Amino acid sequence: MIDNLEGTSYKVIVHNENQTEISFTRTWEVGSSNAPLNVDKRFHYMAMSDERQRLMPMPNDRLTGETLDYKEAVLLKNPTNPEFKGEVDDKYFYSCENKDNQVHGWISSDPPVGFWMITPSNEFRTGGPVKQDLTSHVGPYVLAMQKEVASWPYSFPFSEDYVKSNQRGAISGQLLVDDWFTNKQPMPGSSVFVGLAPPGVAGSWQLESKGYQFWTQTDQNGNFLIKNVIPGTYSLFAWVPGTLGDYKYADDVTISQGTIVEARNMIFKAPRKGETLWEIGIPDRSAAEFFIPDPSPEFKIHNIELKLKSMI
Fold first, then answer.
1. Closest CA to 223 of 169, 184, 171, 284
2. pLDDT tens for residues 177-213?
3. Is 28:18 a contact under the CB 8 Å cutoff?
4. CATH architecture of 165-269
5. Could you report the per-residue pLDDT of 262-312, keeping only the tens digit for each?
6. CATH 2.60.40.1120 in the chain, residue ranges
7. 206 close to 128: Cβ distance less than 8 angstroms
8. Taking every annotated instance into account, which residue ranges of this chain make up the domain Rhamnogalacturonan lyase (predicted)?
């Protein structure tokens, strides 16, 4: 079976019996939706996680459907698979938080082929770890992602644009949370999201869309270590699940090759005017606890319970 991979231009970085490394490039223009590489395959099963996987509508099913309030949402009226009739196909159904987007893929039984997107690092993604972002919307988490994450940065790429592990640096520290309403003295911030992003004001990492970002979570004592940081100057940010506000370290930090920067005296003083009288929801940058009403009965709910084994 031979497939054509469509790209504007490419060059072979390395090619031998053990490895082939190819670079695809395309000059981006404002308003363009073209990608540097297009793999034109038609898969009919998608897996985003162990719980989120399903048979997929085909591209022609959208053409015969009804476009709803926005063009991405299409009501399937005459799909190839009759089970999908009445469902709404929408690429936003296949989004997830950046921190959870490690591997997803598509498979087909005829021909028996799969295509997987493995992401051992989110350093190239913007908006922070809990930003809802698209996957690619068209097997399961049985791939050894923990091994892939532990192996990052990979040692095998030869491209001069790729920054290897021995060319990177790190930063460590401890974050304390000072909220007089819950504790009389600053306490270690447990499971706090701490990250490096391009220099800016507190919270600017949420809107930044051009530079690298490196995130981790603190342990129960508020300690953290961010490894494999590309050298450069960053602001050090944090936010505490369950506590309002954004934290920014007093000074920007410069990461150099082979060094570990120690961030000292990190105390997040929670913004507060007085005691908490009542609150709606939890300040954790999630709407998980809010009520989600049932959809209109004219729309059929996606069946995400279908498992990969049903295809075997």
1. 171
2. 999 999 999 999 999 999 999 999 999 999 988 899 9
3. no
4. Sandwich (2.60)
5. 999 999 999 999 998 988 888 888 888 888 888 888 888 765 554 444 444
6. 165-269
7. yes
8. 193-259
